[in-house]
Records
---
Amino acid sequence: MKFITYVLLDKKVNSQNIQFVMDIGSYAELAGNIINNNPYQRNRVSKSGSIYNLLKEDILKECIIPPIVLASTSKLMPGSSPDDLLEEVLADYANLKILDGLQRTLSIIDVYNNNRAHFDGLTEKYFIRIEAYLSISDSGILYRMLTLNTGQTPMTLRHQLEILFSKYADGEFDGVKILREVDDSSVRSINDYRFSDLIDGYTSFLEKNELPIDRVDILQTVRTIKFISDEGFEKMEFSDFVNSYRALSLAFDVRFSGWSYPDDVDEDMRTAANPFGREVYKIFNKSQPLSGFGAAIAELISSGTIKGLDDIKSLVPNLEFEENDLIRINKFLDDIRGEAKKIGNGQRIFFKLFFKYLLDHDGSSFLKVSDSLERAKNRAMAEV
């Protein structure tokens, strides 16, 4: 049972918005069919004593809860009445997503399934307020998800950036496994990358700046959507960026196959704190080297030193290594840790300088890993 209360046009996302109410049983049934349709939703909040336990109690007391926001990507026939459009949208489960209200929806499903006799016995139906965006574009969905994310459990900034850049996640990545925040997985090999770390690197490449973007104000993040909201926008080399960095990291992984931080490091090269990375992937599959790489490559391309990202793969086979290069990386990062006001920023500066010296064919340490590390450390210590 449902009743339409209002129909509006959202001109920002060019989508018709229909506001309506639906009885709790009908919504619980609908939600059960669409609950997993949005891969960018947050995980379920399951902490004991959370605000959502209170919400369940409120629903049983027939408290009116905030509206749920849905979105449909179905292409609808023009000229149909709002009732017919809504009927068509709600029947097309595959193209219907929850934009805002996932935790409320999970609470509604739990409460209804565990208390059907209570709700079926009500003399008047208990209604859920809902609004649905019809025929909304993918970029419109992403924009609305961010602007609606003002509830009791906000998304992490990493999750927000994953949503902003989600259109790039389906590129062709040779052997790369991309981990999103909602996957609840960790980096365990040279093949694994967090999507948010790749985004950090790519953002540094686009902005020619290895330091993190200002993430204090949610409005700043929302503004970033303008960068990718154009439906005709090209992927701007994201796949090339990932694959070129992977080629470089694989070169280290092959040269130092099976390496782990040794117990018998010479005293002058021993780290005071825990090493930055005890294995190859723990050094290179992180935000700091990705960001440094992005900024370095952008500067080299801008100066004309290299033509583009494709050049990296041709340079990799010519890298010159020395036996203790990975120990040097850990030692130099440890030295920088002791001097830097912000450790993460200091690490990013070091990696930017390292990759820049390593790949600059006009420089004295071109393709020489050890020399590039030494130069990067000396310069970074002066900058941090």
Note: The CA atoms of residues 72 and 230 lie 19 Å apart.
---
Amino acid sequence: MPLEADVLAAFPAEVQIPARLVADSVAASSEASPRVLVVLDDDPTGTQSVANLPVLTRWEVPDFAWAFALEADGQHPRAVYVLTNTRSLDPAEAAARNEEIVRNALAAASAAGTAEGGLRLSFVSRSDSTLRGHFPLEPDVIAATVTAVNGEATDGVVIVPAFPDAGRVTIGGVHFTRGTGENAGKLTPVADTEFARDASFGFANSEMAKYVEEKSQGRFPADSVIVLDLNIIRASADPQISAKAIADAIDAATNSTPIVADIVTENDLRALSLGLEEAERRGKKLLYRVGPPFVRARIGQEIRSELTGEEAYAGNTPSEAGGLIVVGSHVGVTTRQLNALTEQHSAARIVEIDVEKLLGDNAAGYLDETVDAVVAALRGGDVIVHTSRLLIKTDDAAASLKIARTVSAAVVAVVNRTLKTFPPRFVIAKGGITSSDVAAHGLEIRHAIVRGPMLPGIVSLWEPVDGPAKGIPYIVFAGNVGDDQSLADVTRKLSNTF
């Protein structure tokens, strides 16, 4: 494993760029024709880097109209998140959902009623910082749908998986995960991690240009990918000069050319954002395939400090019931976090959902027993509901997804029936697909506001604004972020028994 300091030694030093500089640039370009980023988030964890933005779990035209009309600090939202949950779908379903969302967003924007004839939309395909997901399918579908609706062709697809808050960085065109503990300061190429062995979205390359070639099955050869390395991102101490360098490097992009960006810090993201703003001012039409923090930097939003327990309940009276912690993810860090929580939170009742019984003949009866156990336990305090840690999977990607859906449907049923019987004080959902399904179906959230992170840069709190979960803090906790104590730390903030 190389040392991060050694890898960075070949590149210029970081340049400090205030978020306000990006925000002012975005405001200037939006003055004549208001622009909104529509973020198609393939699971809900992409909201962990932003604050005070609307999120939708449904995407009819009226849903977009609600989101576009919201006002915060005297302006309409610079970005709207749409929870697509496409990482849990097969390719055909994912494509259809992306197309439907883009068409409805464009329809709502054209009807938004501004003097200029509607809002100007840019589309963001938000996916995993460890490269799992439907790529290049999702950007392809978004680009094709935009062309079909308004005739606008996409020049480039900007690929920015980096998530520095969670230890994912791209240097010299190679995507890495940062080590922790005794491996702090060391970098592991992402293809050498457990994430690259994902049953549905595995991959072999950490070098982003080669990853693009691999995933596009050669449609985009590695040497056709534009790489914005740190020599370009940090071209000058003057951010405007760097912005021009980035825009110049993108100038050759046409017909959805892949564009990969090095990112190590938030300042790099802001420098990139200024360059993308300049490129778009020059007329380039871009789509974005990105990790969580990109949107924050792209709209010039400051990094929101972590929410306190008091802020999590602001404006609502917390229930005296216990909280519900739902754990579905099976990655190693989640299992370690679950172990730490159960060891430290001795007052919590643990209810395990046995996956083998869910796949058995008496699944319905077993589900009834599980719901009864959860409701009874909530009356006395917090309840940790987790699926059995034995991961049942097959060598067939479609079959693996089917098993995952069966398990997720059971988790959703437990949450929904519990909510309608004895509403919990708070809900934490751990894992991407888990948190998506719990939000949209378990808690029946249609519209929510992302209030901010529960831990620095990671783990977002949603405030449901409608449905049976209105007023109950909902914590979206990705499976692959945080250290071993993170789940316990978040629970401690919200619980009245921990």
Note: The two ends are 39 Å apart (CA to CA).
